[in-house]
Amino acid sequence: MLSDTTKTAADATRASAEHDLKSAAKAVGNRARSVYDSVTDDIAHYADDADGRVRRLADQAKGRFNSAKDQLNDRINGQPVPSAAIALGIGLVLGLLLAGNSRRHF
User: Fold this and answer.
1) What is the DSSP string of 8-69?
2) How far is the C-alpha of 30 from the C-alpha of 24, rounded, in Å?
3) Using CA atoms, how far apart are residues 74 and 68, in angstroms rounded to an integer?
4) pLDDT score, position 2
5) Helices 80-104 and 4-78: crossing angle, nearest 10°?
6) Burial of 76 (0-12, 13-18, 19+ CB in 10 A)
7) pLDDT under 70 in the chain at which residues?
8) In this predicted structure, what is the pLDDT of residue 101?
9) Residue-level pLDDT at 105
10) Cα separation, 21 vs 43, whole angstroms
11) Predicted local distance difference test score (pLDDT) of residue 4
């Protein structure tokens, strides 16, 4: 059998090991939380940055579309007869293409 001194030493060693293990587990948990917080902060930052870029690109696209629309309106209003002739030609071509497809089925 073990002596009382050996048992006491074993209990002290066990208690010390448990304490060390708990301390290490707590340190790992704290480090994991720190890494998690850092990663989520980085993701939030990148998401905000991407949101700003997308908004700027959307505003640029909207501006370009409005500019092209205004230019087209100015040309149509400045030259109504050629514009009407072009629209008539496009309509005729589309009508022939669509009618050509429907004639093939009959």
Assistant:
1) HHHHHHHHHHHHHHHHHHHHHHHHHHHHHHHHHHHHHHHHHHHHHHHHHHHHHHHHHHHHHH
2) 10
3) 10
4) 77
5) 110
6) middle
7) 101-106
8) 65
9) 54
10) 33
11) 87
